[in-house]
Specification:
Threonyl-tRNA Synthetase, Chain A, domain 2; 3 domains
């Protein structure tokens, strides 16, 4: 079964059970400043899990784009990817365990046809220290569900992976683990949760690939949470009913929630009875193209490199489509890290230089219907990836010479950071080179140097754009309104990958930073200037509408980078009398009533700020 068909079946299954289908949020979180990327399905729904009313009801279902930077170094085995889709269904104070577990079991067994004999489940063993009981209710439900399929489901307590390795399966089908395994919150186990964070016990479902032999390198005995590859987690139902208190204890949330997440790639792999997620349609298409371009075979000693290149190209493509371009800071650093690590593995495969862009089409060919933005931005993605490959190869030779000077001894954190800052080597590349030379790298020292660098970058960014608007004078208000038109014009002329990355507006001028991988051509800037002046002359109304943040995101309203928005937002529309919209942005600042009040718009200068970020200075005459 293809992943697109499986996604469709999941959404329809829960739609038939009263769920509203909601769109995926961007990989760039709109309401969570604590993290760089959307890494789970629940992240965009935190306000509603805490009790706010969702405009589409109490039963929701979706497929959420996710990216987990922590998994970059894990990529290379049969199941880890950086980008993935998380299938999710949600109960916001509606149904609970008695509905959720039978529904997911039915979806797997009755809808997808998975063999229930190959399904094993885990539950929460309890946390006496925090006075949270063992999940006996889920155990009873699972026993009943398996019994209905003629399977006796014995339950045992393994508590930890170490205990699991010691005791093994014990003829059981239901396994209770402690809070490090079967408790879910964004912060992990209960003791790691900050005050106000929601969480709860969970119940995971594992699929057994019986053709995979247990590897003793992962422990004496196999068990569902073993990492040998025989068992693959395919879904996790979180029963979110607790909130961390200021005193360190826990209280019940105002509503009991269900937060289900199931990896689309993993469930597809299970439905095809093959534990290698790189053999499902979305990734296998890239693997086949790599075989064609390299002459190597996937089923070979180069399998790890195939997986790294396929995953990293797909992950970078989705991030670029959401406006994240390669740079040396924050989100852009991870795009750059993916592509530069992929270059190293492409070299191992013997791929010719300059062919990376050819992997983009197969990487996105199965996603166009679900995520049209990835298809719309295909040309930008190809150009960005090609330029990044060329840029890295220009510095790679110099960096390798510098590395050779260091390789006679261990590499310090400062030296590793210098390779990153001066020669563009992500830590992954330095580590791989060091491993080939059998020398050590001070990873902790690198992280300390990197954090110092980030603090300096953040301080500089805060200084550049402190306050946004210099004041609320008439002139500043006019220029602020013109800034809306300028951003909309840039997106229309240069492409929808353009997003605001900071602004500073005084009574004299506009200074707008925006995402774009290259210098804007003079004829492009002329088109932008003409388009803004055209909209000024048309006399568009600047109309403020208040709505839910989710509704505004669905309408495609632009958000200011780095701003945390509440559940209800103000959106300013620049539109004509017939309701034709030119610009729509989240904004709470002052605006003129009509664009005819602005005068003549003129661009003074366009320049680079950093890799992937450009700056325009403009005035109104």
């Amino acid at each position: 079964m293809g992943s697109g068909e499986l996604r469709k079946r999941f959404l329809e299954f829960f739609k038939e059970r009263g769920h509203s289908v909601i769109p995926s949020s961007s990989l760039v979180p709109g309401n969570d400043p604590t993290t760089l990327f959307t890494g789970s399905g629940m992240q965009p729904l935190i306000p509603y899990l805490l009790g706010q009313k969702h405009p589409m009801g109490t039963r929701l279902v979706d497929s959420q784009k996710c990216f987990r930077a922590d998994d970059i170094e894990e990529v290379g085995d049969n199941r880890h990817t950086t980008f993935f889709e998380m299938l999710g269904n949600w109960s916001l104070g509606d149904y609970f365990k008695e509905e959720q577990l039978p529904w997911f079991f039915s979806f797997l067994v009755d809808e997808l046809g998975l063999d229930p004999q190959k399904l094993y489940v885990t539950v929460f063993a309890g946390d006496p220290k925090n006075n949270i009981p063992k999940d006996e209710e889920s155990i009873a439900i699972w026993k009943r569900l398996f019994a209905e399929k003629g399977i006796e489901a014995k339950d045992v307590v393994l508590d930890t992976s170490e205990k699991g390795s010691e005791l093994g399966m014990q003829g059981a089908r239901i396994f209770a683990y402690n809070a490090k395994k079967n408790w879910w919150s964004r912060a992990g186990a209960p003791e790691n949760m900050p005050p106000g964070e929601p969480g709860g016990p969970d119940s995971e479902v594992f699929f057994e690939f019986t053709q995979v032999e247990h590897n003793l390198a992962f422990g004496q005995n196999c068990h569902p949470n073993c990492d040998c590859g025989r068992f693959l987690e395919i879904g996790n139902s979180v029963f979110m009913e607790y909130k961390k208190q200021e005193n360190g204890g826990f209280e019940k949330l105002v509503q009991r929630n269900v937060d289900f997440g199931g990896g689309l790639e993993r469930i597809t792999a299970a439905s095809n009875a093959d534990g290698d997620v790189f053999k499902i349609d979305t990734l296998h298409a890239v693997i086949q193209k790599i075989e064609e371009l390299s002459g190597a075979r996937y089923e070979s000693a180069f399998q790890q490199s195939f997986r790294v290149v396929a995953d990293h190209i797909r992950g970078a493509a989705f991030m670029i489509a959401d406006g994240v371009l390669p740079s040396n800071t924050e989100r852009g650093y991870f795009v750059r890290r993916l592509l530069r690590r992929a270059v190293r593995h492409a070299d191992k495969l013997g791929m010719k230089q300059g062919v990376f862009a050819e992997l983009v089409s197969p990487a996105i060919e199965n996603y166009g219907e679900q995520y049209p933005e990835i298809k719309e931005q295909e040309q930008l993605i190809k150009e960005t990836i090609q330029k990044e490959e060329v840029r890295f190869r220009e510095t790679l030779a110099k960096g390798l010479k510098e590395f050779e000077k260091l390789s006679g001894k261990g590499i310090s954190g400062y030296e590793a950071f210098n390779l990153y800052q001066s020669y563009g080597f992500p830590l992954d590349v330095t580590l791989e080179l060091a491993k080939e030379k059998n020398i050590e790298v001070d990873r902790d020292g690198f992280q300390q140097e990197f954090q110092k660098h980030q603090e300096v970058s953040r301080t500089g960014a805060a200084g550049r754009f402190k306050g946004g608007l210099a004041d609320a004078s008439v002139e500043t208000t006019r220029l602020h309104t013109a800034n809306h038109l300028l951003l909309a014009a840039l997106r229309q002329v240069l492409g929808e990958h353009v997003h605001q990355r900071g602004s500073n507006i005084t009574a004299e001028r506009i200074r707008l930073d925006f995402s774009h991988p290259q210098k804007a051509a003079p004829e492009e800037l002329k088109k932008v200037e003409e388009l803004v002046n055209e909209k000024i002359q048309e006399g568009l109304g600047m109309i403020k509408r208040e709505m839910s943040k989710e509704e505004a995101q669905k309408l495609g309203a632009e958000m200011e980078f780095g701003i945390k928005y509440g559940d209800v937002v103000s959106v300013y529309f620049a539109e004509d009398e017939k309701g034709n919209v030119f610009s729509k942005e989240f904004c709470g600042g002052p605006h003129v009533k009509n664009t005819s009040e602005l005068g003549k718009f003129k661009i003074l200068k366009e320049e680079a700020v950093s890799a992937g970020i450009r700056r325009i200075r403009a005035v109104l005459d």
